[in-house]
Predict the 3D structure of the following.
Amino acid sequence: MAGHDHDHDHDEISEITLRPFDLSDIDDFMEWATDEKVSHFCIWDTYTSREQAMGFIKNLAIPHPWLRVICLGEKAIGSISVTPGSGISEKKGELGYALNSKYWGKGIATRAVKIVVGTIFREWPNLERLEAFVDAGNLGSQRVLEKAGFYKEGVLRKWAFFKGRSRDAVMFSLLSSDFLS
């Protein structure tokens, strides 16, 4: 963007905070949940109604063990979650995130991931591994994880079938020992 002040971007990143979802986030949530660009690489389908979005916030987001809204100032511009594993995966958590496409490319998702990493291993002392699966075509999201210090472990070929096709996934991980050492 012509005449865009780079320092302003840095200010924005320092204003990023994470907090629990609230029903009052519905309008902000609709901005990214109804955007095809955001849902394109996600397993979930683009939202089409406020009722559907309200159901998600009430029934999934609020009760979730660790799901937060990414805020820029007061505005909710995305979400980030860690879903705990169980059984043989009890020492594992899966990271997921989505960001309003208007805010892509500013380092915001990377900042949010770094905030999560900085807190989750202390909040969940049992956690040894944080992992993330990224669609092989989603290069932006892969860069986010690399910049946040995750290791790219490899490509899982035809790992998932959704939205009509089989997809390769790139597996990323960060161990508590990587972070806390």
Remarks:
- Helices lie at 6-14, 26-33, 36-39, 50-61, 108-123, 139-147, 176-180.
- The two ends are 40 Å apart (CA to CA).
- DSSP finds seven helices and seven strands in the chain.
- The chain has a mean pLDDT of 88.
